[in-house]
Design goal:
The protein is an all-alpha fold. 75% of the residues lie in helices and 0% in strands. It has helices spanning 2-24, 29-40, 44-54, 61-69, 76-98, 102-122, 141-158, 163-173, 178-187, 195-203, 210-233, 236-259. Residues 125-137 have low confidence and may be disordered.
């Protein structure tokens, strides 16, 4: 029956999104959008709406717990300022996405995946290997607000959750230790800051059917926990190569979709 196919395909989509999220310390939207198109045959707008809607429940909680148990912490002030910017940017991104074609969204998504590959290739651990938390008084509020706004806009416009912008902004822009930046990013897969953007897609009916939604949520719960376990317990060099290969395949597939 079709609903069984949709349920199983949804579980597959959720597992891939969750594994990526837990390992990279970003929201699961990257995998969700691509594999909703691939496994469920959804159009780009529908895939993005599905991604945002399934990220409203706190599916990243298991991943946050794994990073927390490894000694990483997130100052409340960071969450507050980033969250405020996220809410504003998310609504703007959602309205902007509704005004452009599937082709524009697909090419934008290809650029995002290429940027993610570059991040994986260029990312380096801090020389001291320290996971110590940055002093909460060091980071000014305005950069945090801007990081949140950029993350929110990318979330609403591409349906990706915005975690990449948070991780890169904190780690590369503000010199926050990588694991701590990834924890902050994962926290935003627990806090439903993408509700404004998700509501815009929901109100326009841009989502897959409920069997697939249920499957995606189940897959996300499992995949995020497994991905976080891998990130904290397996060789980083090997995992980086695997992730680069996976995202490269995703980028090639989305390029094919944009050209056809």
């Amino acid at each position: 029956m079709s609903w069984i196919h949709d349920l199983l395909a949804g579980i597959g989509v959720g597992l891939v999104g969750g594994l990526t999220s837990g390992f990279m310390g970003t929201s699961p939207g990257g995998g969700l959008v691509v594999f909703t198109v691939l496994l469920l045959g959804a159009e780009q707008h529908v895939a993005q709406g599905t991604s945002l809607i399934t990220q409203v429940p706190p599916t990243g909680l298991a991943g946050v717990r794994r990073y927390w148990q490894s000694g990483n912490r997130s100052p409340l002030q960071w969450i507050a300022w980033i969250g405020l910017g996220f809410l504003v940017g998310g609504a703007g991104g959602g309205y902007a996405a509704a005004a452009v074609s599937d082709s524009v969204l697909q090419w934008t998504y290809v650029v995002y995946l290429v940027a993610l590959i570059a991040l994986l290739i260029l990312r380096r651990d801090r020389k001291d290997g320290s996971h110590a938390a940055v002093d909460r008084d060091v980071l000014p509020w305005l950069p945090l607000l801007l990081i949140g706004a950029l993350a929110g806009f990318s979330s609403g416009f591409m349906g990706i959750g915005g975690g990449l912008a948070i991780t890169v902004g904190l780690a590369a822009g503000l010199r926050v230790p990588q694991h701590q930046a990834q924890l902050v990013s994962l926290i935003f897969s627990v806090i439903p800051t993408n509700i404004p953007a998700a509501w815009i897609y929901w109100s326009k009916g841009l989502m897959v059917g409920w069997p697939a939604i249920v499957g995606i949520l189940a897959g996300l719960w499992i995949g995020t926990d497994l991905g976080a376990r891998a990130a904290n317990g397996v060789s980083k060099a090997v995992l980086h190569r695997v992730m680069i290969a996976l995202i490269s395949v995703m980028a090639l597939y989305m390029t094919h979709k944009a050209l056809t």
